[in-house]
Amino acid sequence: MLKKVNRIKRQIDFARVAKYGRKKYSSFFILYSLSTTPPTKYTRFGIVISQKTEKKAVIRNKIRRWLRVDLAQILKKISVGDYMIVVKKQAIGQDHKVLKKDLLGLLPI
């Protein structure tokens, strides 16, 4: 599980990453990355799945949990900064292994 210090929680932080961050696209995700100035001790992630993507909260939360577990496993390899992961509609119904492979290809490891 991803620790709370490694999560983006505030709306203002999400907005800052979305506005100033670099975008990378993959089949199932959009990654916004922003290096923090001054550099912080922690790498932080925010995961966004809108109701437009999937109506059922159970499925949205399951994908969030999968991504948090995957991110916690590779946290030490990722450079310090803020990252926002937006889940696309195509990710719904995909297997966990497929999503993990796509996510690992997107992150700067």
Structure description:
The structure is a single chain. This protein has 109 residues and is of the alpha+beta class. The chain has a single domain, classed as Ribosomal Protein S5, domain 2, CATH 3.30.230. The protein is built from three helices and four strands. It has a four-stranded mixed β-sheet with strand order 1-2-4-3. Helix 2 packs across helix 3. The radius of gyration is 13 Å and the shape is globular. It starts with 10 loop residues before the first helix and ends with a helix. The relative contact order is 0.26. The mean pLDDT is 95.
List keywords for this structure.
single chain; 109 residues; 4-stranded mixed sheet; 19% strand
**What is the residue-mean pLDDT, rounded to a whole number?**
95
Helix tally?
A: 3
Please describe the biggest sheet, giving its number of strands, its sense, and whether it closes into a barrel: 4 strands, mixed
The total beta strand count reads 4
Proportion of helical residues: 25-40%
Helix and strand sequence: HEEEHEH
CATH C-level name: Alpha Beta
At a glance:
This protein has 109 residues and is of the alpha+beta class. The protein has a single domain (4-102), classed as Ribosomal Protein S5, domain 2.
Secondary structure: elements and pairs:
Elements: H1 11-20, E1 22-25, E2 29-34, E3 44-48, H2 57-74, E4 82-87, H3 96-106
Parallel strand pairs: 3-4
Antiparallel strand pairs: 1-2, 2-4
Helix pairs in contact: 2-3
